[in-house]
Design brief:
The protein is an alpha/beta fold and 317 residues long. It is built from 10 helices and 12 strands. The termini are far apart.
Length: 317
């Protein structure tokens, strides 16, 4: 039997939840979510936000003390005047962390050369021997590909153990994402991750494009939770990849309960039309569908512990 290909998932629900309007997870709620993620098979949870490093490190230590079997990770802005100190603190509290260097010229430092210099300066001050340090590039899909290649290669040569490409404003398409990831994969000898936002409804498609281009990992959130239109949805990514022969380690049967938990604790409802976890996913009403409803489903409801619903009533209008 051919071995299934594997993709790492880094769940960012707790970190992205900090930027979602009206959402504020208490520490106890964060522990519940992290435990549910681990029970579902998620191996890494991003809990440290770059603008709230100290707060995130407290949570990371709490999760470790609770004995939850999930690797914690976080983000540190390489542009922060406290970057070196925050990186040192993160290295002692989380399983791995990433330094962020935004590639937009509207975010300082403005010039490409200054961005490279600033990033390498912080990397040089991170304790040697810590292979848990990665580098992430917000706005990478809006930057010139040549510059993305240049700064990513410089980061790897300076010791970055993985690279994350961010589609920060959700404007990329899966074809461009695939091409960018494939180009980087030919040049970089470290795993490449992809972080997609959903402003145009393409986050899951872009995640699939990244995998087709050679990405080893993806950032996801439960229910697509996140700022603005949210992020690539954990449940959509797990099912989309699984049906195409990719293993994420996540149990599809756990997805709906995980979705309900995050809905309850975040207060952000999930549309009845939402893929995978929406109430209407396996509801059939069209008379033409009722004889063989499975022909109109992307996957069996049994895979996610759901039931098929057939509505045989006829409208009187």
């Amino acid at each position: 039997m051919r071995r299934r290909r594997s993709i790492e998932l880094r769940d960012s629900t707790l970190r992205e939840g900090l930027d979602t309007p009206g959402v504020r997870f208490s520490e106890a709620q964060a522990v519940r979510i992290a435990r549910a993620l681990a029970d579902a098979g998620v191996r890494e949870a991003e809990v440290v936000a770059p603008a709230r490093v100290a707060e995130g490190l407290v949570l990371a230590r709490r999760l470790r003390s609770e004995g939850i079997a999930i690797r914690t990770s976080g983000l540190v802005y390489a542009t922060s005047p406290r970057a070196a100190a925050e990186a040192e603190a993160a290295a002692s509290a989380v399983g791995r962390f990433d330094l962020l260097m935004p590639l937009s010229p509207r975010r300082p430092p403005a010039s490409p050369a200054a961005k490279v210099t600033a990033l390498l300066d912080v990397l040089a001050r991170v304790p040697r021997g810590r292979r848990t340090v990665g580098v992430g590039f917000p706005h990478a899909t809006q930057a010139a590909p040549a510059f993305v290649r240049e700064i990513a290669l410089a980061a790897v040569q300076a010791g970055a153990a993985r690279i994350t490409i961010y589609d920060t404003n959700g404007s990329a398409d899966p074809f461009a994402v695939r091409a960018l990831l494939a180009d980087l994969g030919r040049r970089l000898a470290v795993p490449i991750f992809f972080h997609g936002h959903n402003d145009l409804g393409l986050a899951t498609a872009n995640a699939l494009g990244a995998v087709a281009g050679g990405a080893r990992g993806l950032d996801v959130t439960v229910n697509g939770l996140g700022d603005r239109a949210g992020n690539a949805s954990l449940e959509q990514v797990v099912m989309t990849l699984g049906l195409r022969g990719w293993s994420t380690g996540v149990d599809p049967a756990a997805l709906r309960a995980l979705s309900r938990l995050v809905t309850e604790l975040s207060g952000v409802p999930v549309s009845k039309l939402a893929p995978v976890v929406g109430d209407f996913v396996f509801a059939h009403r069209s008379p033409g569908h009722l004889p063989v409803p499975s022909e109109f489903e992307a996957f069996s409801p049994a895979m996610v512990g759901a039931l098929r619903r057939l509505d045989r009533t006829r409208s009187t209008r």
